């Protein structure tokens, strides 16, 4: 598993725990990282996501709420809610991360950490959000034969 995937999962797990516990005490982040061992680079990536979500949580939650049809934000499963928060943060504030990467990661994490039809649900909500926030990618430029593109997303 890549550093970014691990970081996304850790961020979602932290936010999930925060949702369940309510208010976080000053030592809680350190306690989380004691229980969730991670490489320095993975932890830094996760902390960046956590800080971003918490800083913009009101706007993120409002955006997600506006996309839900016949369902309230509070009724979302805590895992799904936090998968959507992290992916929404990336869609809004991380333009360097390609939209398909954000959506695929969120869907895969929802499938792994949540239950039932979470992957499909997360896909539907994020697809709407991505279409409203980001322009569709321009036509793909063909690469010369023998070259490949790689990403650590």
Outline the structure in words.
- This protein is mostly helical.
- It has a single domain (3-133), classed as N-utilizing Substance Protein B Homolog, Chain A (Orthogonal Bundle), CATH 1.10.940.
- It contains 7 helices and no strands.
- Helix 1 crosses helix 3 and helix 3 (40-55) packs across helix 5 (78-93).
- The longest helix has 19 residues, at 3-21.
- It is globular and about 40 Å long.
- The model has no long low-confidence stretch (mean pLDDT 84).
Q: What general form does the structure show?
A: globular
Give the name of the CATH architecture: Orthogonal Bundle
Question: What is the CATH T-level topology?
Answer: N-utilizing Substance Protein B Homolog, Chain A
Q: Could you tell me the mean pLDDT?
A: 84
Over the alpha carbons, how many angstroms does the gyration radius reach? 16 Å
Number of domains: 1
Q: Mind summarizing the main beta sheet?
A: none
Total strands:
0
The CATH superfamily is identified as NusB-like
SSE order, one letter for each helix or strand: HHHHHHH
Q: How much helicity do the residues have?
A: 55-70%
Distance between the termini: 11 Å
| Discrete helix count | 7
Beta-strand content bin: under 5%
Structural class: mainly alpha
What is the CATH level 1 assignment? Mainly Alpha
Give the low-confidence spans: none
């Amino acid at each position: 598993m890549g550093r970014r995937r691990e970081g996304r999962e850790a961020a979602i797990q932290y936010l999930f725990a925060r949702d369940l516990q309510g208010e976080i005490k000053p030592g809680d982040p350190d306690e989380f990282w004691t229980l969730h061992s991670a490489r320095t680079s993975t932890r830094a990536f996760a902390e960046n996501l956590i800080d971003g979500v918490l800083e913009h949580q009101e706007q993120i939650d409002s955006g997600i709420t506006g996309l839900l049809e016949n369902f309230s934000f509070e009724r979302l499963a805590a895992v799904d809610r936090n998968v959507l928060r992290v992916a929404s943060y990336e869609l809004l504030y991380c333009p360097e991360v390609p939209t398909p990467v954000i959506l695929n990661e969120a869907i895969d994490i929802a499938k792994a950490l949540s239950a039932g039809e979470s992957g499909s649900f997360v896909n539907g909500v994020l697809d709407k959000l991505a279409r409203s926030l980001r322009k569709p990618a321009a036509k793909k430029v063909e690469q010369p034969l023998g070259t490949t593109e790689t990403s650590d997303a």
